[in-house]
């Protein structure tokens, strides 16, 4: 299982998600994103793509209007990806730094 950490902005964003959005985000991360990290091949439905405005930062689609940004961090366990969650919410999170 990959390891994760969160930036303070991500924690603040989580507080603005509805319970249904939070449940969906968790389901997608644990059921699709984390397993795909192990193989390095992301399923098309996640629409993983790099952000043009920030090198090394990626966007994950977890709902039609649900996005999260993340980047790879330094491994905490050898051979296991470590993810740093940056932002989570709707498309609005992509309009600022």
Folded structure, characterized:
The chain is an alpha+beta fold and 97 residues long. It has helices spanning 8-14, 19-39, and strands spanning 3-6, 49-50, 57-63, 66-73, 82-89. Strands 1-5-4-3-2 form a five-stranded mixed β-sheet. A hairpin with a 6-residue loop joins strand 2 (49-50) and strand 3 (57-63). It is globular.
Short descriptors:
5-stranded mixed beta sheet; alpha+beta; 97 residues; 5 strands; single chain; globular
Measured distance between first and last alpha carbons: 29 Å
- Secondary-structure content class: alpha+beta
Could you give a short account of the major beta sheet? Answer: 5 strands, mixed
Radius of gyration using CA atoms only: 13 Å
Q: Identify the overall geometry.
A: globular
Layout of secondary structure:
Elements: E1 3-6, H1 8-14, H2 19-39, E2 49-50, E3 57-63, E4 66-73, E5 82-89
Parallel strand pairs: 1-5
Antiparallel strand pairs: 2-3, 3-4, 4-5
Short synopsis of the structure:
The protein has 97 residues and is of the alpha+beta class. The protein has helices spanning 8-14, 19-39, and strands at residues 3-6, 49-50, 57-63, 66-73, 82-89.
């Amino acid at each position: 299982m990959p390891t994760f950490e969160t930036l303070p902005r991500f924690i603040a964003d989580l507080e603005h998600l509805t319970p249904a959005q939070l449940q969906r985000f968790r389901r997608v991360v644990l059921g699709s994103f984390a397993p795909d990290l192990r193989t390095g091949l992301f399923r098309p439905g996640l629409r993983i793509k790099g952000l043009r405005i920030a090198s090394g930062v990626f966007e994950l689609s977890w709902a039609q209007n649900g996005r999260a940004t993340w980047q790879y961090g330094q491994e905490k366990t050898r051979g296991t990806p470590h993810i740093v969650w940056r932002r989570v919410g709707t498309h609005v999170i992509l309009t600022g730094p």
